[in-house]
Amino acid sequence: MAQATTNAVDRTTGPSTGPHSPGADAVPTPSGSGHAFRTDINGLRAVAVLAVVVYHAGIAIPGGFTGVDVFYVISGYLISSLLLREVDRAGSVDLVEFWTRRMRRLVPALALVVTVTLLASVLVLSPLVWGRLAWHGASAMLFVSNLLFPYQGQDYFSDSVTPSPYLHTWSLGIEEQFYVFWPLLVLLAVAVARRTRVPARRMLQALFAGTFVVSLATSVWLTATAPDWAFYVLPTRAWEFAGAALVATLPWGRLAEQSRVRPRLLRALLGTAGFVLLALSFALVRETDPFPGSIALLPVGGALLVLAAGSIPTSGTWVDRVLGLPVLQRIGDVSYSWYLWHWPFVVLTTAAVQNDAIWIKVLATLAALGAAVATYRWVENPVRFSGAMRSWRRTAAITVAIGLTVGAVTVGTRVATGAVLQREPFATAVEAGTEPEPYECAETTETTSGIEVCLLGDLSGDTTVLLLGDSHAMHWIPAFDAAARDAGLRLAVRWRHGCPAAPVDVEQPAERGPCTDFQDESLRTVDELRPDAVVVSQAQIYADRMQHADGTRMTDGEARGAWASANDELFAHLTAVTPTVVAVKDNPQLDVDPLECLTRPLPGIGDCSMSRADAEASNGDLPRISAEIWTKYGVPTWDGVWSETCDAQNCGVGDTEHPVYRDFHHLSVEYVLTRVPSVEQMLQAAVRSTSTSDIG
C-alpha cells in the first residue's frame, strides 16, 4: 500500500498538472486520508485545455477561452490543499521547498517552448517583429507577460493584428504570481491565528472568503473601467483561486452526512450542475462580453461545483465516469505542455502559409499535441522526478542556467534585429511604418469664436478648402498640402485621432477626453470660416467603439443607427453652409499587417493582398450607410486609393520598395505623395462646385 500511495502522489504532482496549474500537487482523498490521485481533477484539466485549444483553432466554441478560468480554480484548489496539509502537519509552510517545486515543475518545459518559438519566429515572421518577440519571450520566462501585454495595448481578442506567439503566456504570469503571494498570505494568516488564539483553519477560511469578495468586486469594477488591464492582472483573478481554496477548507464528508440528500445523489447533483455551468460558459460567453467581471462566475462556479462533488466521499457518478475516460486522462497528463505548444504552432503555421483556415489551425494544434507528448516524456518527467533535482540549491542553479540560456537567445535576437533592420528592404519598411510626426502648420488662424485652425497650401490663395476628419484625414495631409500649393488654394485642416467628424460618441482613452468637443467645434469652424469647399475623410471602423452618453457600448444595431443619424446630421449641416462637400471613400482595413507580410522570410507562400470582396466588406456596414447619406445629399466622392490599388479581383498593398500602408488602415507618406496629381484634380473640381457624383 505504501508503494501504491507513493505512485499516486507522484502522478498527481507530475503529469496531471495542467496549463494553469504547473505547481499542482497531491490532494487529499474525499475522506481526507491519504493523497490519492483525483481522476476527476485530471479529467477537468483535459476539458479545460480542450476548450482553450478548440477555441484557438477557430471551431465554434465562443467561450472556450474561459477554460483558463477553470485552470485557475484547479490551481487554487490543489495549491491551497497542499498548504493546508502542511499547516495542519507542521504549523507552517516551507517556502523554499514550495517555490523549488514550482520552478522544477514549470521552468524547463516553458524554457524549451520559449526558445524554440523564438528561433522558429525568426524563420517565419518578419524581422520587423523579432525584437518585440524577444521581449515577449523574456517576459514569459520572467512570468510578467500578463503585465507587458496590456501595457503595449495587446488585446487578447484582437483579430486585426498578427498575435504574438507568446500571447497565451499571460495566464502563466498570473499563475506564478499567485504561487509567490499565496503562501505568504497563508503564513500571515497562521501567524495572526496564533496571536489571536483563533483556529488556523478558521482564520484561513476568513482570508480566502475575504480575498474572494474583494477580488471579485475589483474584477467587476476594473472590467468596466479598464477592461484591458482587468483581463490580464492577478487582482481581478485572485477570487477564482480563493473560491477554490475555500472549497478545499470545507469538510465535505461531514457536510454530506448532515444534508438531507444521500451523499451519492448530492455528488451527482453538484457534478451535474457544474457540468451545466461549464457548458453554458463555453457556449454562451462571447469575446465581446465584459470579462472577467461577474460573467466569469459561470466557468468558475462550474469548476467549483465539479471539485466539490469530487470531494464527497462516496462512489462515483456519471460525471466521474466521463472525467475518468482514458482519453481525457491522457490529455490531462500532457495538458501543460499542450497548452504551451498549441498557440505558437497556430500562430506560426498560419503566418507561414498566410492562411488561417480552420483546417490549418486544427492541424497545427494536433501537431502541437505531438510536441506536447514528447515534451512531457523527455523534459517534464525527467526533470520533475530526477533525484538530482530534489535539492533546492541544484534546482535554483539549473533554473538560473536555463534563464541565462534563454536570456542569451533573446538578447542575441535583439542584436540581430538591429543589424538586419538597417538593410534593405527592411529599412524602407521601418521608415514606412513609423508614425509620422504631427504635421506642422504653415500658419494658424482663429475663427471669430477663438477656435484655432491649421493652415497649409498656398497661404495667399483666395479660395479655402477645409480638410476635416480623423487620422484618415491626417494621413492625406502631405498630399493635400502639396496639391493645394500647386493649385493656388489655401488649405485649412481640422482632424483628431480616433474621432470621426460625424457627431457620434466614440470610446476614447481617458487622457484624450471625449470626441464631442472636437465635433462641435468642427461644425462651428465651418459656420465661421465659411470655406469654399469641405473634404471629409473619416475612417469607417467605429462600429465596435460607439457608446451611449453614459459610456456603455452600443450594440451592432445601435451603432449602425447612430452612424446613420450622425452622418445625416453632419452632411445636412455641411451642405447647407458650404458650396461643395466632398467625401473621401475610406481605404480598406487590412486583415494582415502589410509591412510584416511584405518583409516575411517566406515570400513565396501566400499573398499579402486581399480580395476585392473582402476589401469592400472590411469595414462592415458603415461604408454602405455613409454612401447612402452621400447620395441623399448629392455629395460627390473621391475614391482615394481604390482605383490605384484594386482591380476587379484583388486589392494590393504595394511592395517592399513602395508600400501603400504604414499599418492595417493608415496610408504611408510615400504612397499619398504619389497621389498628389489626383488630389489636385479633385480639389480643383471641388472649388468649381462640380455636380457630378464622383470627383477624380
Automatic annotation (TrEMBL):
Start and end residues of each stretch annotated as Disordered: 1-33
Annotated GO MF terms: acyltransferase activity
Annotated keywords: Acyltransferase, Membrane, Transferase, Transmembrane, Transmembrane helix
Compositional bias ranges of the Polar residues kind: 1-19
Alphabetized InterPro entries for the sequence: Acyl_transf_3_dom, Acyltransferase_3, SGNH
Highest taxon listed in the record's lineage: Bacteria
Ranges where the SGNH domain occurs: 441-670
Transmembrane segments: 43-61, 106-130, 177-194, 206-224, 230-253, 265-285, 291-313, 334-352, 358-376, 396-416
Location of the Acyltransferase domain: 40-376
PANTHER family named in the record: ACETYLTRANSFERASE, ACYL_TRANSF_3 DOMAIN-CONTAINING PROTEIN
Protein name: Acyltransferase family protein
Protein source organism: Promicromonospora umidemergens
